[in-house]
Here is the input.
Amino acid sequence: MIPLHEVIVARELGTYGQFLELAPGVLMSPNPQFIVRLITDSVSHQAYLRNSMGDSYKNFENHVRGKHKVSPSTMKILARKAGVQVSFIEEMYGASPNGPLLEPLLFLFQAIEHIPNLVASSLKQTPIKCPCCGHNVLHDADYWWHKNGNGINGKEAAFAERLLNALMLIYYCSPAPTFPKNNRISRLEVLMALTNPDRHPIGNWISIAESHHGVSSLVDFEKALFASKAHSDNTIFRYSRLKKWSSGQDVMPIEAAEKIATLSGMHVHGKNLFLISRSLALIIDFVEGAFPFVNDSKSVNKRNARSIIQNRISKLNENYQLIRQYWLKYAENKLEKLSKPL
Here is the structure.
């Protein structure tokens, strides 16, 4: 795994940035379990296991910690709930007396961010040279953040860049989202909508859900959700709750987003966009927290952070389009050579 390098933030992070567990003024590495909190409603991989295994969790924990061996019948129950072979559970006895309970699971969560970064790093080696100076135009991160990052330091800019690269690669490799009465919205336009600096990314996602109901306000959205015959638990979607989620004041649970996506006809792509929005919220919170202290108000800092992320996404999109064009041209040239008679 590419290690998470130490960074420092100047102020308390927002609700999603708190997933990183960074303290203001302290040079430290982000908690590696932030990915678990980002894509699940659990605070750690152990909490995720506890939620998944229910009443069997304690038996599993004691078994893995080496505190006692479970019976053959319990072993089968654990294997069924974990979705693995009984032999795997047997081999786990005493595997982790302390530290992370199930390191392979934590590794899988971390790989969600790690593997896209490896791919992005490889793609950036595509030789696209500036006609003026010969410098690879894809190696623009340091210069771009220095010029446009509102004073954010190098290590913090590198961490934000790392998260953005992983996010964009995952997004561009996922199925394209669809929208009511308009299926031709580009992926970039969707990202621009989600990073609209006038609102929190979750508020922007809720706006997309509103459009599926033909409404444009939280008041009307509450009514639309309440009117849905398929929904039996309307209380979690009251205006007051929607408003806190929309502003980022409270973390919006994934379970709630899945229900709203289903009720809004967004289904799987709606959940995917919601996870993108959560990721954007975390990155924006981090960038805002990493700004050096100035006299700007909190609202100004928030808008600056959102604008910076939106602008950087636009530039990264340009870079990926250059990479795409380069390799398409490369493939065309290869095919042309192969088609020529010997």
User: Anything to note?
Assistant: Residues 64 and 93 are 5 Å apart (CA to CA). The longest helix spans residues 298-339. The two ends are 46 Å apart (CA to CA).
